[in-house]
Fold:
Amino acid sequence: MAQFGELLKQYRLAGGWSLREFCSANGFDAGNYSKLERGRFPAPDSDERIEAYAKALGLNEGSDEWFSLFDAAAAQRGRLPS
Structure:
């Protein structure tokens, strides 16, 4: 299973976004988002925050990509995916 940050980056790049473009368009701090992608920050504890990232990345709710992101966040936090 891919790490949470790796998935964020993979999905962002698949959407054709540079880091700065993506963060600017979605109101995210580019420095903090970069740290998430590089695994320097842990996955958020808040499902609402993960959902905000998923929606900004254009992931369809209920899709395999959507669940992969939530599962990777749970795994990184040491929890079983729901």
Remarks:
- The CA atoms of residues 43 and 77 lie 7 Å apart.
- The mean pLDDT is 94.
- Residues 64-76 form the longest helix (13 residues).
